[in-house]
Amino acid sequence: MIVAVATVAAALAIHPMPTVAVTPSLTPTSCPASAQAAVNAAPSGGTLDLTGCGPYSETVNVTKPLTIIGLVDQHVAAQAQRGFVELSGGNITIRGAQLSGSTSGACLGIEGGSNYDVDSSSFVNCAQEGIAVHGDFSQYTRVNGFTLANSTIADANTAGAYDPGNEAGGIKLVAVDNSTITGNTISGNGGPGIWFDGQSSNSVVTNNVVYDNLRSGIMLETSTSGTVTGNAVWESGWGNPDYTAWAGWGGGVLLSSSGGVSVSGNTIAWCPAGVGLIEQVRSDNPGSAAGDTVSGNYLAIDTGMLVDTYAESGAPTNWGATSPNSTPTSAQLTAAGAPTVPQPGH
């Protein structure tokens, strides 16, 4: 984990937060009284359609192959780094869910197993993070195959109750292989927007809009073989106090002790640095920065570095190409959805 401590509420105060409201549907008489009971009754491999039902306010555990559509669940406590909706075992699809207001922990949690698909859903006002995806620590197994698409994660950890240098923010994936994060909007979170850790591998992050997050918009830590392309990232990273010593800690995209990651075709604006690459001497470093490349990006940085590199003594330094990159025009920033000027002080 990265050791960095900030007063989350103070740092977030200079970033206006978007408001994403969850509007529950009316509950028809045919809806089940309990979402968990409906999950228990659904056949393995079947589809449970809860469209128009709820909102529920209960923990939901899914431990068998299942497709769940339209789950609305809110204002429930969860364990740290777990969700009040918790998936395990694999081969589970969540579509059209609205999960909000966890009073502790995450809104959605995934532990172990293979093949999870989350689509067209929202995770708003979650206490620690919107989504926590973890290899199963108790069995030392990894998650293999996870997709998050066309979804919204907003305003997690705004109270600052959880350390963003440990685990907090939009979505964190630990020990996850073969994941795709695409077409999402991730904003206003008290930590990184998208965070890979625990030697995750084969991570694809594409066509997301990521802004106003306390730490880096997209971060790969101790991970390998990633592709970060086509994303728009802005006004993220200012809440990491270490950026004053090394701007890369606040990079819109940050590669920390990771290797084989390609960062290309992104628009990154108004962060302490466009892209940060850091290598540290740590036991979980996968061993080489070889293959990390940063090129073909549009980088608009007012006072910091476009691409900032740093290596501790004894750490690998064999990065690949870190250029060419370009400065975007105002029209290109507008087309990406980014502001054409930084917020005051940035």
Key features?
single chain; 346 residues; mainly beta; 10-stranded parallel β-sheet; 29 strands; disordered N terminus
What would the principal axes of the Cα set say about the shape?
globular
What percent of residues adopt helix (DSSP H or I)?
A: under 10%
Largest sheet: number of strands, sense, barrel closure: 10 strands, parallel
Q: Which runs of at least 5 residues are low in confidence (pLDDT < 50)? A: 1-29
The chain-level structural class is mainly beta
Query: How many E strands?
Result: 29
Give the helix tally. Answer: 3
Largest sheet, order of strands side by side?
A: 1-3-6-9-12-15-18-21-24-27
Structural summary, described in words:
- By secondary structure, the protein is mainly beta.
- The chain has one domain (92-336).
- Helices cover 5% and strands 39% of the residues.
- A ten-stranded parallel β-sheet has the order 1-3-6-9-12-15-18-21-24-27, with no helix packed on it.
- The chain is globular, with a radius of gyration of 19 Å.
- Residues 1-29 have low confidence and may be disordered.
